[in-house]
Structure formats: structure tokens, C-alpha cells
Write a structure and sequence with these properties.
The N and C termini lie far apart (about 70 Å). This protein is of the alpha+beta class. About 35% of the residues are buried.
């Protein structure tokens, strides 16, 4: 009798353990996919790099009062750079005084820049870069017209429009690549000519087909047909291709409107975009560090 009871107990116990085992096999667990696109070399800057695109909002705007004034926002911008600390930051609407303030707060950066107008002090399209991470091999600027090497503007444009570029080399990893940074006109009928000028220059400058990326305030969303030739040439949207990303609007108008998506990054020749982030954090107690949110992209080399 005792043997039967023991056998019955063992059968029940075995059944219980089987049920527990099966249940555990179907328990949802978080899986760390990062190991599939990271390597031991990533963390020392040889395989990937963090870059920003940021319309900083020109500091001389008379309507920007209180927390919107550059005298306040510059501290928040400095805090943002301390937090993210990108290898490169392409800026738009960065005036000379703002460039000086950024460099004073972060002297570890160097800068390539040009003013958009050949005759007056106004917007700078600037590329800030970490001096201990990158070597500048070549750099320059061109105008977004049919005569890019001559100071010029399109009839429908409200400003001179330029693209600043740099050919860089990673000090640790040795990889070479191009960064292009620009600010398209607010008149969308100028965009096709402007983008044609950018693509033509990319083809002339990047004859070795090195990895390259283009950032900027492009004053339209990614569905614009002005970007079609760029995409046909092999450039992809970092926002769309990112392994981890978001689709937040980048123009916030200091909270006065629902906003729109105007700031973009297109890339070619990089292995992957590990992450795309619209930077919407509050820094130094300031909710809006500009009327545009910066975008942060982590590009991965082969």
C-alpha cells in the first residue's frame, strides 16, 4: 500500500515539474540584441561615433525673451553637450558670438565654419568636432546654387545658403569619412536646386567612396522629392534605418505650435545606425534649448 502511495506521489511530482518546466520555456524574457551590433572596440570610439545636428536658433533674435534668450539658453546648450558629448555637431543659425560661447564652455571642441553671406555677419553653418578624437584632413564650404564655388544665392531664396563640409579621420580607429552640414531655404521651391548642388559636390569630393553623412535643418520632411536623387545615389535616412529610434517632431517653435520634422541625417557607407534620438530633455532648468530639438545619431563603422 505504501509503495502505491509513493508511486502515485512520484507521478504527481513528475507531472508538476514537467508543467513548471514547460511554463518556464514560454516565459517572455528581455533579449539584449545589442551584442549583435556591438563589439569590444565600440566603447573606445574605433567602431562607432555619436553625432548631432542642431539648429541652435540665432542669438540676436529680439523676440526671444526670458528663458528663450541666448544668455539663458547658452548654459542649457553647454549642459546638453556635457551630457551627450558628441564627436561631431553640425550647427545651423550659429552666430559668431554663439560659436564663441560654445567653445568657451567646451574648449575640447574645434570648429569648421563659414558665414552664409559674403558681405555681412549672419548665420554660420558650423561643424564642431572633438579635437582629441578626430583629425581634420580637408574642409571647405560651397553655395547651394548652380555656381557653388562662387558666393551666390537663388532668386527665390531669402538668404545665401551654404554647406560646410569636413573630411575627418578617427584618431583611434583610423577610419576616414565625410561630414556635410547645411541649412536649406524656407522656400521649398529652392530645395531641388540646393540638394542637386550638395549631391554634385559629394560626388566630386568623395571620389574614394568613403562613408559620408549629411545633417541639417532641411526645412521639409523626408517625403520631399528633393531628396530622391540623394537616395538614388545610396544615401539612407538615419531616422528610418536606426536600430533604435524615434519619430518625434524636431521643430518645436518654443512650444508655440505642434511642430514639424525639419531636421535630418542621411548617411552612406556606414555599417549601421545604432541609435537615432530626438533630444527633448530639459537642461539647466531650460525646457527649450532652441526652437528646434537636436537630433543625436550613433553611426557604426564596418
Amino acid at each position: 500500500m505504501e509503495d502505491e502511495v509513493m508511486k502515485r506521489f512520484l507521478r504527481i511530482l513528475s507531472l508538476f515539474l514537467l508543467v513548471v518546466s514547460v511554463a518556464s520555456c514560454h516565459t517572455k524574457k528581455d533579449f539584449d540584441y545589442s551584442r549583435w551590433y556591438k563589439s569590444d572596440a565600440d566603447e573606445d570610439g574605433r567602431r562607432q561615433m555619436s553625432v548631432l545636428s542642431f539648429n541652435v536658433r540665432y542669438g540676436s533674435a529680439e523676440d526671444d525673451k526670458g528663458d528663450l534668450d541666448w544668455s539663458v539658453r547658452k548654459n542649457a546648450v553647454a549642459a546638453m553637450l556635457t551630457d551627450i558629448h558628441p564627436v561631431l555637431m553640425g550647427c545651423q543659425e550659429c552666430e559668431r558670438a554663439q560659436r564663441a560661447d560654445i567653445l568657451a564652455a567646451h574648449p575640447e571642441y574645434g570648429v569648421i565654419y563659414t558665414t552664409t553671406s559674403p558681405k555681412e555677419e549672419c548665420e554660420e553653418v558650423a561643424i564642431f568636432y572633438l579635437k582629441d578624437s578626430l583629425t581634420v584632413l580637408e574642409s571647405g564650404t560651397f553655395y547651394l546654387t548652380g555656381t557653388p564655388d562662387t558666393p551666390s544665392r537663388l532668386p527665390q531664396s531669402n538668404h545665401y545658403r551654404v554647406c560646410t563640409w569636413g573630411k575627418f579621420k578617427l584618431i583611434r580607429g583610423g577610419q576616414e569619412f565625410f561630414c556635410f552640414d547645411t541649412h536649406l531655404d524656407t522656400h521649398t521651391d529652392a530645395h531641388q536646386t540646393e540638394m542637386d548642388a550638395i549631391l554634385s559636390k559629394i560626388k566630386v569630393l568623395n571620389t574614394d567612396n568613403l562613408p559620408a553623412y549629411l545633417t541639417g535643418d532641411l526645412n521639409t520632411d523626408e517625403s520631399s522629392t528633393a531628396f530622391t536623387p540623394l537616395k538614388n545615389y545610396g544615401f539612407k535616412s538615419a531616422r528610418i534605418e536606426a536600430i533604435v529610434g524615434d519619430s518625434h517632431k524636431t521643430f518645436n517653435d518654443f512650444g508655440k505650435s505642434s511642430g514639424s520634422t525639419l531636421d535630418h541625417c542621411f548617411f552612406k557607407g556606414f555599417y549601421a545606425v545604432q541609435k537615432f534620438t530626438t533630444v527633448r530633455d530639459t537642461y539647466a532648468g531650460v525646457k527649450y534649448i532652441s526652437d528646434h530639438y537636436p537630433i543625436n545619431i550613433i553611426l557604426k563603422f564596418e
